[in-house]
Amino acid sequence: MNDARPISIWAPLAVYIIVVMCILGGGGWFVFTHQDDLRLALLEFFLPESWFIVGDALIDRLLDPQALAVLINALVATVFVLVSLLTFPLKEWLSARYERQAGCTAGRTPGELSLVAQGIEEGKLALFYAAMLLGVLRLGLSQDTTIRVTSIVLSHMVLILTVAIDFISPTIARHGLRYAQVLKLLFMRPMRTALFGLIFAAPPVLVGYLYKTLQWSPVMGYGVMAIVQLTTIVAAVLAGTVIGARWLQSLEQSPKVGIGTRVGGWSLVLSLLVYNGLFFGTAAQAAYHVSPVLKCEWTLSADGFDIEPPSLSNPSLGLSLTVHIRNPTERRAKIGDNRVEVRHQGALLATSAFPAFEVDSGAEATQTLAIRVHPKGGILEAGLRTMNAVRKGGIWNAVKGAADPAAYRVTLVLPTPTGEFSLDLMGKKGAR
User: Which domain holds residue 340?
Assistant: First the structure.
């Protein structure tokens, strides 16, 4: 007589829920209850105290509807990936127990990967996600509306694919298959994969929009987000186990992914990761050195100002300033290669640049800053543009448009090894 106890998922389910709750609760509580301190720390790092209002306005401006969509999707996907990295042994325990209880695999013997191998596979997923995320964020920084919309679409696709891989893969990995096979399986069933990812990604994304739109308190936002994220993660583990088991037989009968395809795929992922990593890394390094410049104490010499007006032969405006600079920060103040673009109602008016210089921490220096402002198209084009504005709206409207500060945008462009990084210093983002 067989008196073996029936398989139960309650023990692993309870442990998994408690651990995930601690991770989500602790992380969410810290962010939501310290968001003002984190915001202040960011402003203090980059800006002097007198510029805090400007910094607040810049942060709010960056959170426009398009950027917000990408940021929410990135946040939700990051939470899913981080929870999996931190809890994959528990997720495997729960999924394996549920597979046996439900009889999902019709008695097939598992060829489970070791915990080390599973950890490597989770690390691969994190690399894949990081490469996709950086690519999406890179597109989201573009000034072109079409490219920014593309970044939103891709951010939804990356979120959906990440959720599908994360929660369907445990059953497949338990039978000796790797993420290359998981990707093949998901790409063979694009509509069902998209539906699975959408079902479990949509609730936390919706909470993110509600938190921003309804301006919930941090406590309420933390509580709702933690409950919704916990529920979706647990439900996705159980549902992914069933779906992975149902799809496993057809995957076992199909040819394995060849070594050439795997090498080519990972080469593409790593290339994308390095390419965009260099972009964001260089931009962050430039910002690290540029931020102390904003905190330096500047004194203009009495006879240190000169101006060279434009002429027909040379339409650029030349400015020369001799200044005394003291760097009170603990970091070196440095400005390297850059370009400054000035736009009016989206049209490029002039380009310039901040001269390259550096001042060591606690040191003083005297710099002659020579700046040339180059009008786009020269004096003739500027005159034609003015005449066209007068013709279309009359002299009064043309004058009002020229005098409206909101119509101007000043952008700092920093070169990186893999492209240019743009930061709006003044004005709203618009199409190039």
Answer: 296-426
